[in-house]
Amino acid sequence: MTRTSTWQQILDPSHRADPYPLYTELRRTPVVREEDGTYVVSTYREIVSLLHDPRLSSDARNLPEVAADAAAHAYEEGLPGLPPNFIRIDPPEHDRIRRLLTRNFGPPHRPGRIDGMMPDLLRIVTSLIDDFPGKDGSGKVRVDIVDDFAYPFPVTVICELLGVPREDEPRFQVMSGAVIETADPTTGGIAERQRRRAKAVADLGQYFAQLLDARHGRRCDDLLSGLLGDDGDEAPMSHEEILSNAALLLVAGHETTVNLVANGMLTLLRHPEILDRLRLGDEPDLAARVVEELLRYEPPVQFLSSGRNTLDDIEIAGTTIPKGSPVALVLASGSRDPGFVPDPDRFDPDREHNEHLGFGGGIHYCFGAPLTRPETQIALTQLAHRLKNPRLVADPPPYRASPSLRGPRHLLVEIDGVNPA
Questions:
Q1: Closest CA to 161 of 277, 276, 252, 234
Q2: Is the model's pLDDT at 411 over the cut of 70?
Q3: Phi-psi group of 398: left, alpha or beta (phi > 0 → left; psi -120 to 50 → alpha; rest → beta)
Q4: How far apart are CA 64 and CA 100, in angstroms?
Q5: Which residue did the predictor score with more confidence, 125 or 213?
Q6: How many Å apart are CA 308 and CA 59, to the nearest integer?
Q7: The whole model's pTM is what?
């Protein structure tokens, strides 16, 4: 009988509610080779080392099986033609695309864009909570923090930022879900998942192409318009590059924040003393510290894989990872590594030093981090202030299928009403 590896158990949906004991077991061997040839890296220092190692590629086309699959299907007509987005390519092309995106998103070129969004973030959060049952003082009611709040909030934000019609959400939700599914190693081999992902991204790209065509040269103060009219000192992105990276920003701009907000509220309800402190509002920096600790303790992205591979032999922690090998970096395990973080399994926003891997690291450090942080701070602060006596209906709640993008599928909370804004 074949023994199920610790990594396979982590991928199993039955362990989604609490994978952290399995991460403890995984860290006993910092680098493990799985039967499919994937090298799983689970300790903090080794993960950081690889995140900064140029020999670790993010371009799946370097994997022999992906290259062979692409060659085998080259004769097929109608293959999706969009190039990979910037988080799936290596320097120097990665650096060029990221610079062009940053020019329209934030510092140093647009230092006021994120700050200028703060009133809108509060407006959206206030409107969503105003729509909760119990706003009329009707007493004990239930709300689903995911469906009623954690999902519609970042979706609305990213739509306004990009210039995407909010009413199109039912349409792009299906395509976004198809992209997310391909990050799950349990849904197929890497080459087959890459093909499915290319098709899903091409569908999203076609959607964005229709949006751009509908503008007929009109320019607005949104990210899409900025990319179309970029007048910097560098050659602008091609039309295909804009479509590919717009699809990425739409998907990544809400999927991870949904999980962070939902994981955050679940964690606060499990730690009512922290929730009470946030509700009182006596500590101006508490919300920021809570979010940083959440990124360490219950991160929305549990691991990075999806095509990461070695461009050369890499020796790490006494193991040689051969050239051309797929690699999984288990960020959530690294952030709870007791060799780096004291008392790692305790939720403690008062930590004096809180270095974590919640946003990855190296050249692929999360592009959206400057927006995700204030989104989550505002969301959790307003929930703490306005929900009367919130308590969990079920613990643990049901979880989404994905082992890498981990968060509750629903988070039912019973409340005694909603305080006025």
A1: 252
A2: yes
A3: beta
A4: 31
A5: 125
A6: 7
A7: 0.93
